[in-house]
C-alpha cells in the first residue's frame, strides 16, 4: 500500500447523491460578514430570550474516572444487582464529584445554558468540538490532514445521514453478510439494497470483496457496482468478530481499487476485551495504582486496533463514533470523522432534520468530559473496558461450567470461524443420543469475542436427530421459542441476515443466536446459561 | 361545516409516500409477546449496563411557574440585561426550586437515569407521554377520538418527517407565499416544490386556496394537485399574522374538499399577545394574585385561538408542537398530534434516524413539567406570553417614538394587510423631499403582531426618489446593507419568499424586513430603532 497524504487533487465529489448535491447552503452565506460584526445589534434571528429558559443551573454528580478497576478481579464485579437486592437504590458506594452548568457563566467561553439551550448551527458546542478533535487526533490519528469532525445524534442518525449523502435509490451498499438490522432498515425504504459480503472469524473477507467487485455485472445484478460500504469492524454486531489490521488494510486497498467509500460504524471500539482464557488459567491481578496520565493514555491507545482512519490516505472513510456505549445510549450524541467535502454536506442535512443535538445532553456531556479531561476520559474507558471484559469472562465461564467446551483451530470446524480458535460445546451430561453414539455431540460452537457485547453462537442443527437440509430456520425458531418459553431470550440469528433480505436463502448458513452479556446481572447470566443448557440438551434429544 | 366524529371509514392511507409505505416494522413484531413476559431473562438486546452510566444523579434549579407577571408593567420587564450590565451573572433574583433525577429511583415509575439514558423505543418516556396527552387533550381538544401523540426532536425534525411520510418526489406542498425558509430547505432537495398561496393580514387566503386547487392543471403545472399543506397559523413566520378561527375553518373546509393534509407548525401558539395599544392609551395593571389552578388554566386556554385539531373531524391534521419557545430551543423536543395511521409511520421513521430524543433532555423536561404540574406549566406559559407582550409593546413604542405612526384600515393601504389595522410610518423629521411636497412620505407600514416574535415591515420602496418598477429587490438590499453597516441587522424579506423559489418574480410584492423583538435587550431594541430611523430617513433622501 502506498502511503501518501491526501491532497485536494483526490476528488470525492462524484460520490455525493443527487439528494445531497441538491441541498442548499444557507441563503445568508453572502451576508455572513455582517452577522459576525462585533457589537452588531441583531434583530434578524427568531431566538427566544434566554431569560425565559426556566432553569438557573443544571448539576450532576459524576463518577470519578477511576471508578472501575483496570484488572478483572472479584472486587471489580458490577455490584449494581446487589444494591437492588438489598433495596438500596442510592448507590452509596459510587465515588462522585459534583459539576454545575450555570445559565450565565462568569467567564466567556465557559459552558453555560444560555448558550447551550439556544438555537445554533448544527455543529458541536465549541468546547465539545475542541474535545472531539483532540480525542480523534490522539486516538484514531487519521492519515490525512484536512479531516473534519461533525456532531450527530448517534450512529443511527450518522448512518442514515451518511447513506443519503452518498447513495441514490437503486444503488447497493456493501455490508457484512450478518449485520445490524437497523442499518438495513434505514436503507431499504430508500430503495437501497444490501450487498452482503462473506465473512470469516475476523469479519468481512477481502478476497470475497475483491471477487464480488471485480466480477460485478450491473445488468444481471440490476444495479451499478456499489460505491459505499457499511462495516462494523470491532466487536461486530452480531458476530462479535474483530478485524485484524492486516484485514483492514486489505479491505481498504480493495476499496481504493474499486473507489468505494467506507462507512466505519464503530460503537464497540473501546470494548476491546483481549483473548478469553479459561477461569482456571487466568491470573487475577491488582489494578495498578497509576492515576490518569498522558503516558498511561498513550500506552492504552497503542494497544487498540487502529481505525480505518489511521491509514485512510485518500479520505474515503466516514467514521461514526458514539457516546452510547461509553457514556449512555440516551446521550443521543455521536460524531462523524471524514473529509471536509462530506462533512459540509452532512452538516447541511443536519440543519433540516435534527438541527444540533440536545443542548441538555451536549452541555452535561461536555462538562463531564472537560471535568475529567482527556486522560480522565481514557481512564474511564479503560475501566469500562475491564468491566465488559469481566462480563465476557463470566459469561463464557458459565458456558464452560454448563457445557464441555473444546477449543479447536477453525479450519477443522467451519469456514465462518477462519482465523480464530473456535469453542465447540457439547453436553457434560451424556444425552440419550450420545449414549448410543461413540462421540460427543457438538450442539453449538462459538468464538469468545475479543471485543464488544455479543457472543455469536452457531447452532449445529445438522446434529439434530430429525434434521433434513432446509430445516435450519424452522429448527432455529423451534429452539428459540422453547428457550423463550423457559424464560430466556436470545436474539434469533435470522434477524441479522443480510442475505435473507436479498432473497439469497442459503439455509446452510442458518442457525445462530446472538447473546448479549452486556446488561443482565451476573446471577441472571448464570441462571440464563443453566436454563439454556437444559433446554438445548432437551432440544437435541427430541424425537428420539 | 358538518361536524361529525372521525371514523375508521375515513381512509387516509393513500396520502402515504412510497418511502413511508416501504418502511418496515420491527422484525420482532411476531415475537413481541415473549419480550413482555414478566421476569424474562433477556440477553437479546445490545444494551449497556446502566451501572456504567457515569452519572449518579442530575439536578436542576428550576424557576417557579409564576416567575413572570401576568400583566405587563414596568416591574415585569426582563432585567437580564441589567444583571449583565452590573456584572452579575448569577441571576440572584430568580426564585427557583431544586429537582433531582437519580440513576435508580426508589419507586417504580419514577423518572430515573437508568431508564432515561438507556436505549428504548422511539416514543416519549412514559411520564412525558402521559403529560403530553393530558396537555394536548386540555389545550387543543382534538375533534376526533383516536388521536395519537408522538415525540420528536423539535419541529424541524417534525416537518422533515411529516413531508417524507406524505410526499413523493415531484409533488408540491401548499404553503404561505411568505414562509419559514428552513421548511423549504427541507423539501427542495427531495424534489418537492413549494406551491405558494396568497396571504392577507390574517394569513393564507382561503379563496385563493380554493381558486388554486379548483383550477389546478397537472399538465401545465407539471405536478399533481398538492395533497399536503405546510402552514404556520399563529404569529406566522415571517409575516407575524395570526389566523382567525373563521379563516381556519374556511381553510379546513377547502382541504376537506380537495383532500389535503394540513401540517400545522405552531411554535408561537402560546405567544398570543393581544392587540397592540399605544403606550399613552394603555392602562397598567397589577398581576392577579391567583396561584396556578385548574380554573385559571381553563380560563386562559379558552382565550387562545383554537388549533386546526379542534375542528379536525376527519383526522387530516398533523400538528407540530415544540418546547423550543416555551422551555428552550436546545431542548430539541417536540411532538406530533395526528391520526394513529400517520403516527405509526412517523414512529418507524424515527427508529432509523433520531431514535428517541436525548434522555438528558427528556428526563429534565419531564421532571420540570411534573414538578410544576399541568396548571403550573400553564401559569409559566402565561408569564412567558406576558413577557413577549411586553417586548412587542416596547418595540412598537420605540417605533412610535421614532416615526409618526398612522393606524388605518387595511383596505385603504394594501391588499396584503386585509383584515387588520395597518400602521403607516412616516418621518417625524420632515425630509428634504417632504419639504417640497404637500404630504408626509410613508416609508414603511406594518401590523403590530397579535402573536409571535416578529414585526413584518413592508417598505414603501415606490416612494424612493430614484424608484423604477423592478428595483424593489435591489433597493431592499441597499437599505438592508446600509442598516447592517450602521450596526443593525434585520432579516431581509426575500429570504422568506416562496414565490422567489418557484421563479415567480413578482417584484411588486418585494421590499420587506422581518424584525424580531424576542431576544435583544430593551436598551438595544431602543438603540436599534433609533439607528433604523436615521438610516431609513437618509435612504429615502438619497439621490436628491
UniProtKB/TrEMBL annotation, chains A, B:
Q: Which CDD domains match?
A: AAT_like
- The name this protein carries in UniProt is PLP-dependent transferase
Citing just one GO molecular function, the answer is: transaminase activity
| Gene3D superfamilies for the chain | Type I PLP-dependent aspartate aminotransferase-like (Major domain)
Q: Which UniProt keywords apply?
A: Aminotransferase, Pyridoxal phosphate, Transferase
Where is each Aminotransferase class I/classII large domain found? 119-411
Query: What does the entry give for GO biological process?
Result: alpha-amino acid metabolic process
Name the cofactor(s): pyridoxal 5'-phosphate
Family membership, please give it.
Answer: Belongs to the class-I pyridoxal-phosphate-dependent aminotransferase family.
Coiled-coil regions listed in the entry:
none
Look up keyword Transferase and say if it applies: yes
Keyword Transit peptide in annotation: no
| Species this protein is from | Rhizopogon vinicolor AM-OR11-026
Amino acid at each position: 500500500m502506498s502511503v501518501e497524504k491526501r491532497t485536494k487533487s483526490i476528488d470525492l465529489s462524484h460520490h455525493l447523491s443527487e439528494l445531497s448535491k441538491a441541498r442548499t447552503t444557507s441563503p445568508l452565506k453572502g451576508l455572513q460578514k455582517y452577522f459576525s460584526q462585533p457589537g452588531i445589534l441583531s434583530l434578524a434571528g427568531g431566538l427566544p430570550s434566554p431569560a425565559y429558559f426556566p432553569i438557573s443551573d443544571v448539576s450532576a454528580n459524576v463518577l470519578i474516572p477511576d471508578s472501575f478497576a483496570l484488572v478483572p478481579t472479584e472486587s471489580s464485579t458490577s455490584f449494581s444487582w446487589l444494591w437492588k437486592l438489598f433495596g438500596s437504590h442510592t448507590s452509596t458506594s459510587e465515588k462522585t464529584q459534583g459539576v454545575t452548568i450555570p445559565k450565565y457563566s462568569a467567564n466567556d467561553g465557559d459552558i453555560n445554558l444560555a448558550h447551550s439551550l439556544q438555537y445554533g448551527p448544527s455543529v458541536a458546542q465549541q468546547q465539545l468540538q475542541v474535545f472531539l478533535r483532540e480525542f480523534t487526533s490522539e486516538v484514531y490519528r487519521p492519515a490525512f490532514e484536512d479531516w473534519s469532525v461533525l456532531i450527530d445524534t448517534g450512529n443511527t442518525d450518522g448512518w442514515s445521514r451518511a447513506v443519503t449523502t452518498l447513495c441514490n435509490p437503486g444503488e447497493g451498499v456493501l455490508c457484512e453478510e450478518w449485520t445490524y438490522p437497523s442499518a438495513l432498515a434505514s436503507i431499504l425504504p430508500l430503495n437501497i439494497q444490501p450487498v452482503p459480503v462473506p465473512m470469516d472469524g475476523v469479519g468481512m473477507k477481502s478476497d470475497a470483496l475483491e471477487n464480488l467487485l471485480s466480477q460485478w455485472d450491473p445488468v444481471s445484478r440490476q444495479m451499478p457496482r456499489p460505491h459505499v460500504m457499511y462495516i462494523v469492524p470491532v466487536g461486530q454486531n452480531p458476530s462479535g468478530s474483530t478485524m485484524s489490521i492486516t484485514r483492514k488494510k486489505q479491505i481498504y486497498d480493495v476499496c481504493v481499487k474499486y473507489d468505494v467509500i467506507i462507512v466505519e460504524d464503530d460503537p464497540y471500539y473501546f470494548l476491546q476485551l483481549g483473548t478469553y482464557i479459561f477461569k482456571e488459567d487466568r491470573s487475577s491481578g491488582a489494578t495498578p495504582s497509576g492515576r490518569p496520565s498522558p503516558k498511561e493514555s498513550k500506552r492504552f491507545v497503542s494497544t487498540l486496533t487502529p481505525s480505518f482512519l489511521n491509514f485512510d490516505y485518500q479520505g474515503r472513510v466516514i467514521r461514526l463514533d458514539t457516546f452510547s456505549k461509553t457514556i449512555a445510549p440516551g446521550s443521543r450524541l455521536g460524531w462523524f470523522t471524514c473529509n471536509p467535502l462530506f462533512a459540509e454536506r452532512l452538516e447541511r442535512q443536519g440543519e433540516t432534520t435534527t438541527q444540533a443535538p440536545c443542548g441538555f445532553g451536549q452541555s452535561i456531556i461536555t462538562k463531564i468530559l472537560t471535568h475529567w479531561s482527556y486522560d480522565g476520559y481514557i481512564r474511564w474507558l479503560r475501566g469500562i473496558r475491564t468491566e465488559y471484559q469481566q462480563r465476557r469472562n463470566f459469561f463464557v465461564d458459565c458456558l464452560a461450567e454448563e457445557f464441555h467446551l473444546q477449543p479447536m483451530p477453525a479450519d477443522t470446524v467451519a469456514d465462518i470461524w477462519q482465523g480464530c480458535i473456535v469453542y465447540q460445546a457439547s453436553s457434560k451430561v451424556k444425552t440419550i443420543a450420545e449414549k448410543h453414539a461413540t462421540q460427543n455431540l457438538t450442539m453449538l460452537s462459538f468464538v469468545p469475542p475479543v471485543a464488544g457485547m455479543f457472543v455469536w453462537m452457531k447452532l449445529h442443527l445438522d446434529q439434530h436427530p430429525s434434521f433434513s437440509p432446509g430445516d435450519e430456520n424452522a429448527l432455529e425458531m423451534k429452539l428459540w421459542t422453547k428457550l423463550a418459553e423457559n424464560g430466556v431470550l436470545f436474539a434469533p440469528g435470522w434477524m441479522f441476515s443480510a442475505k435473507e433480505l436479498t432473497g439469497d436463502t442459503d439455509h446452510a448458513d442458518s442457525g445462530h443466536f446472538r447473546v448479549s452479556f452486556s446488561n443482565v446481572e451476573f446471577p441472571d447470566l448464570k441462571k440464563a446459561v443453566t436454563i439454556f443448557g437444559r433446554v438445548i440438551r432437551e432440544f437435541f434429544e427430541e424425537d428420539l
